[in-house]
Each structure stands twice: as C-alpha cells, then as structure tokens.
C-alpha cells in the first residue's frame, strides 16, 4: 500500500541520509563545518520553515480531500453551505439595484421650512448685533442710528429680498412693534404662534400646505421682544422609498436552487445509473456490472452491487452445475446398478426355471449371482459413503494417529496383492514419528484406495514407490507408479465421481468410479489436500495433512 510521507518528516529523512551524500563533504569543506552545523544553520533559514509550513498545509489539504471524497454526507453539507453563501452574495449585490424600484413621488416642504428658519436666524443676528460693530472713522463725526431705525432698515432689507415673508417684532403682550409692509396685524395671539411653531418642529409637516412661522426671542436695549417670521414654505418633489423589493430574495433563492441542482446533478445521475443497473440485474442479466465512479458511499454501494451480482451469478452457476451433476449422477448410477442387477436377475431366472444341465452349473450360476450382488452392494455402499461425505453428514471420530505405523500396516497387507501382479513396493519413511489428528478408519480407506489403484493400473512388472516426509507443520505422502501416460485433462478429472480414463470401462471391468472421489472428500473433510500429477508414464498421487499439535 502506498503511503504519502508528511512533509514535516522530510527534514528528518534528509538528516539521516545527509552523511551518506558525497556532496555533504564538499559543502562541509566549503563552509568550514560539519553536516550537523549546516543543519543547525538551516533551522534559522526562513525558507526552511516556509517549506515545512507549505508541506503541512498540503497534508491538511490531502487529508480534507480524502475525507471529502469518501463521505457523501460531508459533500452534501459543503454543497449546501457553498450554495447558501453564493445566494447571500447574490442578494447583497442585487439589493442596491432594486432599492429604488418602489419609490413614489411626494411634495416635501422641509427645505422651505429650513429656508424660513434660516432667514429668521439671519434677521435675529442682524438685530442683536452691537452698535460697536458698525464702521467709524477717526476724526470724523459719525451719526449712530437708533434702534428703531436699525430694525426698520433690517426688516425693509429682508422684505426686499423675499417679499413673501411676513416679519413681525412683538412685545411680551403680543402687540406688534415693527412689521414688514405686507403684514397687516397690530395684535397677535402670542400663545397661538408659539404653539404652532412648536407643533411644526415636532410634527411632520411634509404633506401639509399651510403657513409656517419661525419664532425667536430677542433683546432690544434691555427690552424683551419676539421675532416672528412667517411664510409659505416652498414645495419640492421628493421620491419616497416604499416596501423593499422581493427581487433580491427571489434571485438568491433561484441561485441557491440552480447551484444545488447543478452541483448535485452528477450524484443524482449516478444514483439513477445505479437504479438502472439494479433493474437490469433484476431482469436476469447477471453479467451486468454497474460502474464505480466515486470513493464515497455510492461507490461502496456500486462495489457491493457488483459483488452481490458476481456471487449470485456464481451461486446460480453452481446450482446449474449441481443440477447437471445430479442428472449425470443419476444416469451413471442407473447404468452401473442396472448392469449387475440385470445379470443377477438373469441367473436367478435360470435357476428358477431350472434351466441348467447339472448341479455344478447351478452352483456356478449361484456363485456368479452372488458375486454380482456383492459388487452391487459395494457400489451402493460407495455411493452412500460419498453422499454423506459430500454433504458433510458424517461425523469424524478424530484420534491421534501415527502416519508411519498406519502406512506400514497398509503396505504389509498390500504386499501379497502386489506380488500377485508382479509389482514391488518400495517405501521411504523418516525416522521421526509423524502424528496427525484424523479419523483412522476413513484415512485407511483413502490410502487403501490409492495403493489399490496403483497396483491395478501399474505396468506389469513394475514398482510402486511410497514416500513420506515432513514439511513445516504438515506431513506429505506421495504414492507413485508407472502406467499409461495421462493427459492434463485426465489428471484434472481423476477425482470426479464416476470418471474413468477409459470410457469403455464399467463396473464390470473397473471400479465403481467413486474411489478417488471418496478419497478427496475424506481429505477435504479433514482440512487437508490431495492432488495428482503425471510426468511421462509416471503417475503420482500426493496427500498433505496438518500435523497434530
């Protein structure tokens, strides 16, 4: 498995390998120091720490990227946050564009009111100015105007500037002391003017078309008075803002939906592809595989779907093979059972009909029928044994057995049968006692079957070799003989049930065809291995079992 080395580990690797680098000695001689001194100098180099910092940031980026790609939940959260931030940005950018969309015109008198107030303050400043502020010349006689003259002059001057304004100067009782030419009042309700002036300042008079009065107190040579300036404020058309426009919010919502749909389009399309793949698989197309396009939960789901499909295809294929094997088994069993049964019934019919010439001939018929019935019984027993082992319906009676002694006993029992067939058995066993945990009766049947086959199918005269040795925690037994060379296909099918190398052989001329299949089932049941090899005319059978602890 490839692993990415963090950048902050590079300096440590560099320090370890620096001494082995030929350039380190040149650099040390050049700078008058050792590699350790050069390393200590590099610690104060800003580029060194910058490189480490960039490497650390790169590691963080790879870490986040790896987790982001492997979690669809994290992808959806980040997608939602990104779309939300984008919609907020769009709303902020479009709000100024639509803020004037709901404006409506209205008449505003605020500027006119402020203008009247400004004139009143100007008149007040002129009336309260000291006499010393007037210009004078040294050595010349200057006539100083009286208060009445100055007030009258000021009122006339401002009246000429704006004839629409009424300027009144009142005493404390509301009597008019001075007034502009366009004013006709001699007595004024002082309290009403004060109240109207205060209402104008407090209340919004923007939409009211009425006279406005600006009211200020002043002193005229220690005399209390009030300045009242009245007039119609000049109107202005202004545009008022109405309710806020829904367009920025609508655009933000549309942006969120569009971005979320666009970003998640690939995932939703992949989900649809997985759903379509499941639909194809449900139609029986078990060869169909859905593509794996990501490393997140959807990619894991695709892998699991493909694995499920492959296992389902394998299971169905095994069921088909099992069905074909069952049919083949029924056919072979029917053939192998019918042949001896037919002979038995034929000889028994001859005996029943007394169709024989002498008692010796009748005894011969009985002997043949009995021999065929024994073969029939052996075939049935082999078939029953094989069925139990294949379905693991048999219980092993495990015991610690010495393989040296077991094979020695079997070979001694087989020597007479081998000599009858002009064969010699050579054995080679280690001095060490090799013990295994097996069912002794079933293991005897395995090696008895292998030795019997070796004797039956060896070239006469010839030699059978039995070799046993230890391999780590296993004991291996090899039984070899010389006979008819076997093809690769024959070797691969030697352990199939009812398989005979010579198709012309039957239970009459050969075995039941179940011996090697039973041997393989027994070895498999013990957790061992059995296989065959053929090299030239030499045929070798191997058995490997785990040694007892």
UniProtKB/TrEMBL annotation:
SMART domains, A to Z: HAMP, HATPase_c, HisKA
A GO cellular-component term linked to this record: plasma membrane
Main location: membrane
Class of the enzyme per the UniProt entry, highest EC level: transferase
Annotated localization: Cell membrane
Keyword set includes rRNA-binding: no
CDD domains, alphabetized: HAMP, HATPase, HisKA
Catalytic activity field: ATP + protein L-histidine = ADP + protein N-phospho-L-histidine
Limits of the HAMP domain: 265-317
Pfam families: HAMP (PF00672), HATPase_c (PF02518), HisKA (PF00512)
Entry EC number(s): 2.7.13.3
Example GO molecular function: phosphorelay sensor kinase activity
Keyword annotations from UniProtKB, A to Z: ATP-binding, Cell membrane, Coiled coil, Kinase, Membrane, Nucleotide-binding, Phosphoprotein, Transferase, Transmembrane, Transmembrane helix, Two-component regulatory system
Membrane topology: Multi-pass membrane protein
TM region(s), chain numbering: 47-64, 76-94, 247-264
InterPro entries: HAMP_dom, HATPase_C_sf, HATPase_dom, His_kinase_dom, HisK_dim/P_dom, HisK_dim/P_sf, HssS/ArlS-like, Sig_transdc_His_kin-like_C
Domain of life: Bacteria
Domain Histidine kinase: 332-549
Coiled-coil regions, chain positions: 298-332
PANTHER family in alphabetical order: HISTIDINE KINASE (PTHR45528:SF8), SENSOR HISTIDINE KINASE CPXA (PTHR45528)
Protein name: histidine kinase
Annotated organism of origin: Paenibacillus ginsengarvi
């Amino acid at each position: 498995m490839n692993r990415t080395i963090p950048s902050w580990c590079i300096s440590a690797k560099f320090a370890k390998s620096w001494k082995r680098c030929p350039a380190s000695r040149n650099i040390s001689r050049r700078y008058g120091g050792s590699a350790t001194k050069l390393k200590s100098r590099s610690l104060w180099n800003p580029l060194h720490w910058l490189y480490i910092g960039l490497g650390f940031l790169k590691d963080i980026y790879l870490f986040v990227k790896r987790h982001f790609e492997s979690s669809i939940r994290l992808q959806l959260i980040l997608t939602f946050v990104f779309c939300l931030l984008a919609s907020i940005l769009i709303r902020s950018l479009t709000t100024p564009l639509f803020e004037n969309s709901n404006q409506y015109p209205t008449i505003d008198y605020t500027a006119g009111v402020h203008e009247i107030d400004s004139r009143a303050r100007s008149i007040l400043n002129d009336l309260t100015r000291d006499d010393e502020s007037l210009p004078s010349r040294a050595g010349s006689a200057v006539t100083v105007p009286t208060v009445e003259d100055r007030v009258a002059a000021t009122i006339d001057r401002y009246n000429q500037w704006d004839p629409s304004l009424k300027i009144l100067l009142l005493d404390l009782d509301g009597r008019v002391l001075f007034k502009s030419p366009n004013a006709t009042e001699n007595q004024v309700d002082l309290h009403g003017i004060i109240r109207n002036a205060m209402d104008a300042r407090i209340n919004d008079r923007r939409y009211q078309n009425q006279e406005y009065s600006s009211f200020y107190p002043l002193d005229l040579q220690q005399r209390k008075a009030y300045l009242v300036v009245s007039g119609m404020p000049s109107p202005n058309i202004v545009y008022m803002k109405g309710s806020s426009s829904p367009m920025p919010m609508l655009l933000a919502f549309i942006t969120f939906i569009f971005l979320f749909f666009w970003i998640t389009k690939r995932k939703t399309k992949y989900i649809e592809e997985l759903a379509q793949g499941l639909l194809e698989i449900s139609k029986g197309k078990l060869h169909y595989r859905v593509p794996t396009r990501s490393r997140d939960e959807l990619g894991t789901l695709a892998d699991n779907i493909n694995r499920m499909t492959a296992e389902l295809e394998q299971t169905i294929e095994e069921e088909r093979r099992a069905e074909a094997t069952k049919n083949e088994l029924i056919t072979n069993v029917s053939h192998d059972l019918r042949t001896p049964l037919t002979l038995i019934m034929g000889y028994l019919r001859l005996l029943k009909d007394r169709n024989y010439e002498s008692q010796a001939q009748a005894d011969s018929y009985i002997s043949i029928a009995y021999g065929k019935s024994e073969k029939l019984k052996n075939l049935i027993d082999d078939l029953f044994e094989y069925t139990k082992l294949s379905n693991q319906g048999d219980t092993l009676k495990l015991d610690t057995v010495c393989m040296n002694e077991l094979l020695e006993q079997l070979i001694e029992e087989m020597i007479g049968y081998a000599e009858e067939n002009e064969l010699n058995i050579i054995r080679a066993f280690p001095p060490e006692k090799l013990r295994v945990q097996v069912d002794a009766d079933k293991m005897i049947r395995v090696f008895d079957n292998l030795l019997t086959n070796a004797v039956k199918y060896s070239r006469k005269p010839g030699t059978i070799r039995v070799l046993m040795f230890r391999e780590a925690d296993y004991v291996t037994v090899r039984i070899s003989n010389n006979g008819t060379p076997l093809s690769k296909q024959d070797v691969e099918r030697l352990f199939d049930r009812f398989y005979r190398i010579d198709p012309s052989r039957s239970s009459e001329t050969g075995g039941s065809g179940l011996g090697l299949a039973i041997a393989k089932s027994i070895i498999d049941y013990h957790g061992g291995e059995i296989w065959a090899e053929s090299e030239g005319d030499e045929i070798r059978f191997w058995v490997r079992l785990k040694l007892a602890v």
